[in-house]
Write a structure and sequence with these properties.
Number of strands: 0
Number of helices: 11
Distance between the termini: 28 Å
Structural class: mainly alpha
Helix content: over 70%
Largest sheet: none
Length: about 260
């Protein structure tokens, strides 16, 4: 019995799951802010914007492509991938230090730590997305189709980032190695990003690899986002990336829940 119970004669109130989630999420966001992670979230899309827009702008102009409109979706997706890596490292660090195990022995909701990490990752994603849109506006990116499509663009981008963060969180909880996990996630992120229709059109790739380039999820996500920014996405285009997103959600969410609540 605690001192509060001895003096009050009443059982000590257990904080609600919402209060626990709010406290843990606030702790993670505070750490991200004080350690400069949110600053990195602002700088990262700037690096991608300068790194890809400036070298390829004039080459794409010869092909009649407005490269600011063309490249912004993949820049947004690449910034979302950094949220994925951040969540993976966060989950791996908490598993490595035994924080997950300690939380499992405390009166905390089983899914609260996972939801807190994902929520904090969403804060980072929103920060990166806002920064990417600002940098994109400076190079000429515009939402031509109206505010409804702009809202859909942002919502879909954040949904992709959140689903990837959930999968990365599961891997982090299972591997308990932030360094190894970061290296393991970097390679597929780079490969899928570079071998996609996000940076160059499909015709810029050799014929033998075009089916993979065209149909892999990053390309499909970039197709949908590009249409949202330009003339408005049609269902014929949107259903394929939605299938990818739903499929990844079905695969990642149960894995993340199991990895978070299992006893180490």
């Amino acid at each position: 019995m605690t001192a509060t119970q001895l003096f009050s004669g009443l059982p000590e109130a257990k904080p609600s799951s919402f209060a626990q989630w709010r406290a843990l999420t606030g702790r993670i966001v505070w750490v991200m802010a004080t350690k400069g992670e949110l600053v990195v979230a602002v700088i990262t899309p700037l690096v991608f914007t300068l790194g890809f827009y400036l070298p390829l702008k004039y080459i794409m102009q010869f092909q009649g492509i407005d490269y600011a409109q063309f490249v912004m979706p993949i820049i947004v997706l690449q910034t979302m991938s950094f949220t994925m890596m951040s969540n993976a490292q966060m989950a791996a660090f908490e598993a490595l230090t035994g924080l997950n195990t300690r939380m499992q022995t405390m009166p905390i909701g089983k899914l609260v730590p996972l939801l807190s990490r994902i929520s904090a990752g969403l804060v980072r994603s929103v920060t990166s997305l806002a920064a990417a849109l600002v940098w994109g506006h400076l190079i000429g990116f515009r939402f031509v189709a109206g505010w409804d499509q702009a809202v859909l663009f942002c919502a879909f981008s954040l949904a992709v980032g959140t689903v990837l963060a959930i999968g990365a969180d599961a891997l982090g909880s299972l591997t308990k190695s932030p360094e190894a996990l970061s290296q393991a996630l970097t390679l597929p992120t780079l490969v899928l990003g570079m071998l996609s229709c996000g940076f160059v059109p499909e015709g810029g790739f050799p014929a033998w690899i075009r089916p993979f380039v065209r149909n892999q999820p990053i390309s499909q996500f970039s197709f949908a986002l590009r249409d949202m920014a330009d003339g408005g996405v049609m269902w014929q285009v949107f259903w394929v990336p939605m299938v990818w997103l739903i499929g990844l959600t079905i695969a990642f969410v149960p894995l993340a829940v199991w990895a978070s609540v299992r006893r180490s």
